[in-house]
């Protein structure tokens, strides 16, 4: 006869739940999957997380709190750029995380990170409104870029679906309305544009993102950063 194992169930805390969420993965995340991973009952898990959104917050909070963030010393552009790249790679390493963040299911750790970076911008002479707008632009771009890549990868499109698709629509889509613009694109211009689109579609995702990031930072510098004092 097998002996019955007695004793307390495994200790449960937010750290253990966070590890379970990350092991299950954000794309496959359900309350039942986390509960099974932890080996606990629904009532026990409910004390810490009442629903799936709270599990997402616990998991994202763990990722943000344990990420290796860069220094916050130096030029504001470098600080924002380096933090954006760390977040991009963090979302890349955990598929589904960007999609959850884009839904607005954000933990307190994300708000604290935003506060700290906005404070850096304030110390560089930004207004509070300008600092918040700059951080929002950069972090939204990181999350939207990674979410778009996740959806693109899940759809498994053909390698040349980008420019060719646009080109076919322009030339032969049966229900396409004629342009009312006075100066529509010429065929030569369309070919150049679609070649650039195809290049963007097939480029390394990080290379394309860093190009967008440079444009965003240039815009922030022009529109929001304090002007140098006149000599």
Helix content: 55-70%
Which runs of at least 5 residues are low in confidence (pLDDT < 50)?
Answer: 1-8, 156-173
CATH class type of the largest domain? Mainly Alpha
Mind telling me the C-alpha Rg? 23 Å
Q: What is the rounded distance between the termini?
A: 91 Å
Helix segment count? 11
Percent of residues in beta strands: under 5%
Class derived from helix and strand content: mainly alpha
- CATH superfamily assignment of the largest domain? Tetracycline Repressor, domain 2
Q: Would you tell me which CATH topology of the largest domain applies?
A: Tetracycline Repressor, domain 2
- Give the domain tally: 2
List key phrases describing it.
mainly alpha; Arc Repressor Mutant, subunit A; 0% strand; Tetracycline Repressor, domain 2; disordered N terminus; 231 residues; flat; 2 domains
Note down, in words, how this protein is organized:
It is a single chain. With 231 residues, this protein is an all-alpha fold. It has 2 domains: 10-66, Arc Repressor Mutant, subunit A; 69-170 and 186-231, Tetracycline Repressor, domain 2, CATH 1.10.357.10. The chain contains 11 helices and no strands. It has helices spanning 14-24, 31-38, 42-46, 52-66, 76-93, 97-102, 108-123, 128-155, 161-172, 187-202, 205-223. α1 crosses α4 and α5 (76-93) packs antiparallel against α11.
